Amino acid sequence: MKKENIQVENLEIGEGTIIEDSVIIRGISGAAKRVVIGDNCYLGKNVQIICDDFTLGDYSKIHHNTTVHGYKPCTIGHNAWIGQMCIIDSIGGVTIGNNCGIGASSQLWSHIKYGDTLEGCRFLSENSLTVGHDVWFVGHCIVSPITAADKSMAMVGSVVTKNMEENHIYAGTPAKSISDKIGFQFNEVSNEEKRKKLTEYMEQAGVSEDKIKIVESTSAFNFEDDISYFDVDSRTYTKKRSLDEINFMKFLLPEKGKFTPYE
């Protein structure tokens, strides 16, 4: 990270985060007011964050040549995966939940602005873009300022102009739900099945059972010891920053399991 490329009044960068030297972080016209980047994140080459108020959660990745811009806040949750050459426009404000994927060359917009209003152009608007948890824009998607409900998904090349319903899959131009034909993005899985699978992942990851514990509810969380507790029901864990915890989280991401810190 080159300090001359970073112009931020209030900057917070978490532990284990890697920011390539060519990354630029600043505000729309001068220094950004506030930028918060969580633990164990990655910002790739030529990423530009030109936004006055920007937040990125833990274990999130923004890959090469992606641009985030806008003068309203842009908030992206934990475990985000944003592919190469994406555009996230926050002129109208953007909120993206936890565990979301934005495939390469996708564009997420929160404004329409160019035509000459003096000449009578009717197309001028700024509206917020709200993306829930576990949403996936597979790639080459163009998304208008809509609301995408939790677990919704847009297939490659979708042009999304209307709100996306929870756990529905969309495709086409303009995108329409095809869930009645191919089903939903997520099937229901019991907590017992999840705990069994997560235990298998622990064995595969080679992490210490003295440092990682799988529990049945958050009531079993202990914040006083150095053990990281994982609850599959709430999909949360106690963030202790141990090496085993970090290695386990990295092993689980992006496709095995996604957990967020308990708050």
Describe this structure as you would to a colleague:
Helices cover 11% and strands 32% of the residues. The protein is mainly beta and 263 residues long. The chain has a 9-stranded mixed sheet with strand order 2-5-8-11-14-19-22-24-25. Strand 27 and strand 28 form a beta hairpin. It is globular, with a radius of gyration of 20 Å. It starts with 7 loop residues before the first strand and ends with a strand.
* Helix share bin: 10-25%
Total strand segments = 29
Helix/strand structural class: mainly beta
Low-confidence stretches: none
Radius of gyration, taken over Cα atoms and rounded to an integer in Å: 20 Å
Shape: globular
Overall average residue pLDDT: 97
Strand neighbour order, sheet with most strands: 2-5-8-11-14-19-22-24-25
Q: Count of helical segments?
A: 3
Biggest pleated-sheet summary: 9 strands, mixed
State the separation between the terminal residues, measured CA to CA.
30 Å
Beta-strand content bin: 25-35%
By oligomeric state, this entry counts as single chain
Architecture blueprint of SSEs:
Layout: E1 8-13, E2 18-19, E3 24-26, E4 32-37, E5 42-43, E6 48-51, E7 53-56, E8 61-62, E9 67-70, E10 74-76, E11 81-82, E12 87-89, E13 94-96, E14 101-102, E15 107-108, E16 111-113, E17 124-126, E18 129-131, E19 136-137, E20 142-143, E21 147-148, E22 153-154, E23 159-160, E24 169-171, E25 176-177, H1 179-182, H2 191-205, E26 212-215, E27 228-231, E28 236-237, H3 243-252, E29 260-261
Parallel strand pairs: 1-4, 2-5, 3-6, 4-7, 5-8, 6-9, 7-10, 8-11, 9-12, 10-13, 11-14, 12-15, 13-18, 14-19, 15-20, 18-21, 19-22, 20-23, 22-24, 26-27, 28-29
Antiparallel strand pairs: 16-17, 24-25, 27-28
